[in-house]
Amino acid sequence: MTNDLPLSKEQILDAAEQVLRRFGPDKTSVVDVAKVLGVSHGTLYRHFASKAALREAVTERWLHRSVAIPLEDIAARKDGSAADRLRLWLDTLIAGKRKFAAEDAEMFAMYAEVTLHAVEIIASHVDRLMGQMAVIIEEGIIKGEFKPASSIKTANAIFMATSRFHHPAHVAEWSSEHPNEPFELVWELLLSGIVSSHES
Amino acid sequence: MTNDLPLSKEQILDAAEQVLRRFGPDKTSVVDVAKVLGVSHGTLYRHFASKAALREAVTERWLHRSVAIPLEDIAARKDGSAADRLRLWLDTLIAGKRKFAAEDAEMFAMYAEVTLHAVEIIASHVDRLMGQMAVIIEEGIIKGEFKPASSIKTANAIFMATSRFHHPAHVAEWSSEHPNEPFELVWELLLSGIVSSHES
């Protein structure tokens, strides 16, 4: 039975996510998603040319909706110190990745796999996050809380220096440790590298 | 034809490495190594109870001989500043991992896989490296070059904050970038976190 109503991208991605979760990322095909939606596989192939494209689109939506949007809200706040906001931003990023890995291991493994190949999706996601972090850092510099520096370079440095806590390649290490202790050590070191000396 | 001379651990590991390299880590069995050495597989199983044990022993030797020993020499030096020595120690660690990944991709993949499971081997290797770094940092603190802090905690923080550049899980990112640029950003931030303010 096929359905002739035009499908929105969101509807397709909802169905794709549901099928990926039910059958597992390795076993899900574009045809399986078409069946759930009650459309021909030709219709679905016009949106996603391959299984890889489907997986990438689902990952991209997750990164946007569950990572970038909540972090955007934190970067846009104006209350409190820049250091506190930066810490909250990083804590939220790290907690989001750990929660996803712990609660949905199979989808997380798919996301980790996609990040290795979907270079453009990841680059544009990371660029967006770097812009958010740079806003927080820039404000800290203007308020004299942080030392003068290139806010975007500092954002990149902090993101790379905290990879062990949010990059999906490190998932194996997350489950065996207390989440906050090792990060606390790194955070103290990074913070002491950016605060202006009359603040510390 | 079997050989009755007692085998040293080094001889066995030399043969194992040679066979792993020739057949590939996935296809090498303990029996293949026994054949190369001209001993019964019973003899070899007394040394390595499984294929996994063989792979772990080869990885452990590589970590010891090609990573820990060269870094030990750097940590033991007394010339120059602590910051320069710390940078050389990190550069050597990073260059060693990149060289291994680039020149011997299959063995590197085996090492990356082993590190996920051989928790004790990796913990004892990392402890040794942390001791080396702490020696360099401690000297920087005594000379007034670095701020007073726990040298072992600082060593751990720097090691974690540079994971992206030496942890095998990041191998996919290394090949597509200029090796020094991103590390330089992180290094500047970390250094500015540890130098004492009258030095900077």
TrEMBL record, chains A, B:
Highest taxon of source: Bacteria
Pfam families with a match to the protein in the record: TetR_C_27 (PF17935), TetR_N (PF00440)
DNA-binding region as annotated in the record: 29-48
Organism: Paenibacillus endophyticus
Keyword tags: DNA-binding, Transcription, Transcription regulation
InterPro entries, per database record: DNA-bd_HTH_TetR-type_CS, Homeodomain-like_sf, HTH-type_TetR-like_transc_reg, HTH_TetR, Tet_transcr_reg_TetR-rel_C_sf, TetR_C_27
Domain HTH tetR-type: 6-66
Organismal lineage: Bacteria, Bacillati, Bacillota, Bacilli, Bacillales
Protein name stated in the entry: AcrR family transcriptional regulator
UniProt KW Transcription regulation keyword: yes
UniProt GO MF annotations: DNA-binding transcription factor activity; transcription cis-regulatory region binding
